[in-house]
Amino acid sequence: MTSAELTYAAYLKLDELLQLQEPRTAQDDTDPTKVLSEQFFIVSHQTCELWLKQILGDLAAVEGHFRTMTTADLERSVDLLYRAGELLRLLHEQLMALERLPLEDFAHFRQYLGSASGAQSTQSHRLEWVLGNAKRAGSLFLAFRTGLERTGADLEEIVGAGVGAGSLHRVIEGMLRVGNGYFQWKLGHVGLVTKMIGEQRGTAGTSGAGYLMDRATMPFTELHELRGKMHERRQEQIG
Ligand code: HEM
Fold first, then answer.
1. Helix (H) or strand (E) holding 158
2. Domains in the chain: how many in total?
3. How far is the centre of ligand 1, averaged over its atoms, from the C-alpha of 123 (Å)?
4. Is residue 89 part of a domain?
5. How far, in Å, CA of 199 to CA of 210, rounded?
6. Residue 198 has what DSSP assignment?
7. CA distance readout (Å), 74 to 4, 66, 84
8. What is the DSSP letter of 115?
9. The domain containing residue 188 runs over which residues?
């Protein structure tokens, strides 16, 4: 098919895409609103996985730019980091929308999930690997630190310089936006889960909301510590 013949549906593969939602409720209940509730649940998860694909791609590109550390590549990284931050905000808002899932319909179709659970989301595990958590630095931060070391720059000095550090400062701001967006997404998920299943166990067999709360940690610990240190130094200078 040439570009002139291409249609919107063909370009986006809409026929295939719109066939990918198969609510299991339809097997035993033809009430359209119940079927729609399960479709809502499926679409929420599918769109989440699509945005995760985009976020992972964007962050992988940022890691690539950290290998060169040219000003142009750093500025591209800033744009990509802010985009990833916006997409995490979208993911959080999608969870807020899912709070409108009628409880009685969810309680009905939950039986069909078996042991299927977000805990099996390979992309969400990859995102945690890239961003890290409170105890372990992620591959994104490690790539940034390695890039700085190669160019002889000192992270503590960059944090201390603030806006004076230019592109490097903006990259750090972008990473922190992504880190906070990720944390808000995780907290939003705990809120949704608590609303939907209370203290019940998850389909993967975890304790549910309690387990998720323990896992909702904030990445980029090293950057937070350096920013805390900067405050300490400023206060010493003032006092
Ligand atoms: C009614 C809506 C939802 C409920 C009740 C729910 C429930 C849960 C529970 C209980 C867990 C813990 C693992 C388990 O034992 O199953 C979990 C994990 C997870 N869920 Fe959800 N979830 C919902 C919606 C979503 C959505 C829309 C997404 C987006 C893809 C999502 C992504 C995840 C991820 C990535 C994990 C793993 C989290 C981690 O390991 O820290 N969940 N979910």
1. helix 155-161
2. 1
3. 13
4. yes
5. 8
6. T
7. 37, 7, 15
8. T
9. 25-238
In order along its 239 residues, the chain shows pLDDT tens digits of 788 899 999 999 999 999 999 999 988 888 999 999 999 999 999 999 999 999 999 999 999 999 999 999 999 999 999 999 999 999 999 999 999 999 999 999 999 999 999 999 999 999 999 999 999 999 999 999 999 999 999 999 999 999 999 999 999 999 999 999 999 999 999 999 999 999 999 999 999 999 999 999 999 999 999 999 988 888 888 87
Structure tokens at 4: 């002139």
Residue nearest to atom 39 of ligand 1 (CA): 119
Residue linked to tokens 């922190």: 176
Residue with tokens 């300490």, as numbered in its chain: 232
Cβ atoms 188, 95 nearer than 8 A: yes
Q: What is the whole-number distance in angstroms between the Cα of residue 149 and the centre of ligand 1?
A: 38
Residue in 93, 100, 112, 117 to alter for ligand 1 test, most ligand atoms within 8 A of Cβ = 117
Token pair belonging to 36: 């729609």
Does residue 50 fall inside a structural domain? yes
CA atoms within 13 A on the CB side of 210: 6
Torsion sign, CA atoms 205, 206, 207, 212: negative
Q: Is 135 helix (H, G, I), strand (E, B) or coil?
A: coil
pTM of the model: 0.96
Q: Is residue 11 part of a domain?
A: no
In a domain, 1, yes or no: no
- Which residue do the tokens 């800033």 mark? 78
Distance 27 CA to ligand 1 centre (A): 24
- CATH code, 227: 1.20.58.480
Structure tokens at 11: 């370009």
